[in-house]
C-alpha cells in the first residue's frame, strides 16, 4: 500500500475487447490478459450472453447430492479434449485450490493402495503453484514463501529444465535431458516417500516465463511410471491454448495423472478451477468406506455461472478454430517483438511459446519492474514485468495492428525506464 503513494492505483471503469479504460478516460491495451485469465477480450458479447442466459436459469446450487447441466457438459467436453485419458473432473474455485486438490488426491490415492509412506512432493526450482499453505510447499519463490516457512511442509526441489541454462553449443533438448537425469537420480533415492511430481508444463510462469523443451515432460512421464510417482501437470497458466495446443502436455505427447486448470477456463470471467484425473485414480477412492473417499468441498464448487462461461469459452475455441488462428497471431507477435527488441543492447533471451513472448532486461535498477509498468501505462499498455522479465500474454483476439501498437508501447516503455536511470 505504501508504494501507491507514489504509484496510485488505476481506477478502471470499463473493458471492451483488448482495451481497459480508467475513470479519466485513459485507455490501455491489456497486454497480459488480466493476469493471464482473459482469453477473448473484456465484455465479450458471446460469453456475456451465455452468462446472462444462465443467470435467468440457475445461478447456483450445491453440488453435493445435486448436479446440473453446465457442470456435466463441461466435464464431458474437457474429458473429450483429453481423448478420454482424463475422464474425471473435480471442481473448486481458484488455482491454488486445484493444486491443493491434486496434492491431496495423489497422496490419498497411494494411501488407499496401502502405500502410506508416500506423502512428499517434488517440484522444479522456480516453480509456482499458488500461495495457500499447502501449495506453498511446492512453490519455489522466496518472496511468497519465506515469511511463512514455519507453516510450510517443504517438498523436494529438483533442477529446472530452463532453456536459458544452455552452455555453449548445448540445445534446449540437451538442457532438458540434463535436468531429467537429475530428476532420475532424485527419484531413484526418494521414490518410496514421494506421492507426486508437480510441474508447470513448458513454461514456468510466475518465476519469469521460464521456457523449456517438451523432452523434459516425456522423460518426467517415463520416470514417474518407472518409480511409481504420480505426475501432476499444473496447466492453470499454460492450459486453454496459451502455448499453442489446448493443453501444453499435448506438445510432449503425454498425459499426466492429474491436470489442474483454472485462469483461462472461464474466459477470465468468473473464479473456476478443476482437476482432471484418470479412471484408475477414481477407482482408488470408489469404496463403501467413507474415509477412503476424497472429502474436499468448497461452497461454490461447480458454480453454474462459471461453468457456463467455460462452455461459452470452449464454444469460441471450436467455432473460430482459435488454435489455428493463434498460430498467425503468435507469428505476428514474434515478428514485431524481434524487430523491436532482438537488437536492443539491454535485451537478453528473447523467447516465445505460442501466445507468450518474454525477454530479460539486463539492468541494475532495483525498481525496473515498477518503472517499466508505469512507463507502459503512459504509453497506453498494461504490461507488468516479473522482476526484470518483460512479457506479453495478449488475449486471443489481437489483430496485427494491435500487436504493433502493444510492442511499440513496450519499446517506448523500455527506453523510458532505462533512460531515466
Ligand atoms: C496463477 C497460478 C496458480 C494459482 O492460481 P490462483 O487462482 O491465483 O490461486 C497456480 N499455478 C500456476 C501455474 C499459476 O500460474
Please characterize this protein's 3D structure.
This protein has helices at 33-36, 45-55, 69-81, 95-112, 133-136, 142-145, 172-190, 215-226, 279-285, 304-319, 322-341, 368-378, 400-419; strands at residues 12-16, 19-22, 27-30, 88-92, 120-124, 156-158, 194-199, 203-204, 210-211, 230-234, 258-261, 273-277, 347-353, 356-361, 381-382, 389-392. It is of the alpha/beta class and 421 residues long. The chain folds into 2 domains: 3-30 and 322-419, Aspartate Aminotransferase, domain 1; 49-319, Type I PLP-dependent aspartate aminotransferase-like (Major domain) (Aspartate Aminotransferase, domain 2, 3-Layer(aba) Sandwich). Helix 2 runs antiparallel to helix 10 (304-319) and helix 7 packs parallel to helix 8 (215-226). The protein is globular. The structure holds pyridoxal-5'-phosphate (PLP). Residues 94-96, 99, 128-130, 200, 205-206, 234, 236-237, 262-263 line the site of pyridoxal-5'-phosphate. Pyridoxal-5'-phosphate is lined by residues 94-96, 99, 128-130, 200, 205-206, 234, 236-237, 262-263.
Amino acid at each position: 500500500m505504501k508504494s501507491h503513494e507514489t504509484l496510485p492505483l488505476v481506477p478502471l471503469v470499463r473493458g471492451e475487447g483488448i482495451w481497459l479504460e480508467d475513470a479519466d478516460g485513459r485507455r490501455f491495451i491489456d497486454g497480459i490478459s488480466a493476469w493471464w485469465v482473459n482469453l477473448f477480450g473484456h465484455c465479450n458479447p458471446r460469453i456475456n450472453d451465455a452468462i446472462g442466459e444462465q443467470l435467468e436459469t440457475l445461478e447456483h446450487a450445491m453440488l453435493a447430492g445435486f448436479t446440473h447441466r453446465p457442470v456435466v457438459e463441461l466435464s464431458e467436453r474437457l474429458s473429450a479434449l483429453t481423448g478420454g485419458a482424463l475422464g474425471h473432473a473435480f471442481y473448486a474455485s481458484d488455482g491454488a485450490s486445484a493444486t491443493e486438490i491434486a496434492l491431496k488426491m495423489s497422496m490419498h490415492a497411494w494411501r488407499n493402495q496401502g502405500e502410506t509412506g508416500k506423502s512428499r512432493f517434488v517440484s522444479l526450482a522456480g516453480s509456482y503453484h499458488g500461495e495457500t499453505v499447502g501449495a506453498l510447499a511446492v512453490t519455489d519463490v522466496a518472496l511468497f514463501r519465506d515469511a511463512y516457512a514455519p507453516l510450510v511442509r517443504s517438498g523436494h526441489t529438483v533442477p529446472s529444465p530452463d532453456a536459458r541454462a544452455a552452455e555453449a553449443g548445448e540445445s534446449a533438448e540437451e538442457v532438458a535431458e540434463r535436468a531429467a537425469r537429475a530428476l532420475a537420480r532424485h527419484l531413484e533415492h526418494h521414490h518410496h516417500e514421494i506421492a507426486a511430481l508437480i510441474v508447470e508444463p513448458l513454461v514456468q510462469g510466475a518465476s519469469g516465463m521460464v521456457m523449456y523443451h517438451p523432452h523434459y515432460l516425456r522423460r518426467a512421464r517415463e520416470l514417474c511410471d518407472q518409480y511409481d510417482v504420480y505426475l501432476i501437470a499444473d496447466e492453470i497458466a499454460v492450459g486453454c491454448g496459451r502455448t499453442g495446443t489446448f493443453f501444453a502436455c499435448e506438445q510432449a505427447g503425454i498425459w499426466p495423472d492429474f491436470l489442474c486448470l483454472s485462469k483461462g477456463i472461464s474466459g477470465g470471467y468468473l473464479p473456476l478451477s478443476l482437476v482432471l484425473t484418470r479412471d484408475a485414480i477414481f477407482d482408488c477412492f470408489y469404496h463403501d468406506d467413507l474415509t477412503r473417499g476424497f472429502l474436499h468441498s468448497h461452497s461454490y464448487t461447480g458454480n453454474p455461472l462459471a461453468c457456463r462461461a467455460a462452455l461459452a469459452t470452449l464454444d469460441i475455441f471450436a467455432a473460430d478454430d482459435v488454435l489455428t488462428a493463434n498460430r498467425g497471431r503468435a507469428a505476428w507477435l514474434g515478428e514485431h517483438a524481434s524487430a523491436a527488441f532482438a537488437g536492443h543492447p539491454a535485451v537478453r533471451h528473447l523467447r516465445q511459446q505460442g501466445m507468450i513472448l518474454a525477454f530479460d532486461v539486463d539492468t541494475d535498477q532495483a525498481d525496473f519492474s515498477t518503472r517499466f509498468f508505469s512507463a507502459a501505462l503512459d504509453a497506453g499498455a498494461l504490461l507488468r514485468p516479473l522482476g526484470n522479465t518483460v512479457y506479453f500474454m495478449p488475449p486471443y483476439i489481437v489483430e496485427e495492428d494491435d500487436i504493433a501498437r502493444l510492442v511499440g508501447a513496450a519499446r517506448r516503455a523500455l527506453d523510458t525506464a532505462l533512460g531515466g536511470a
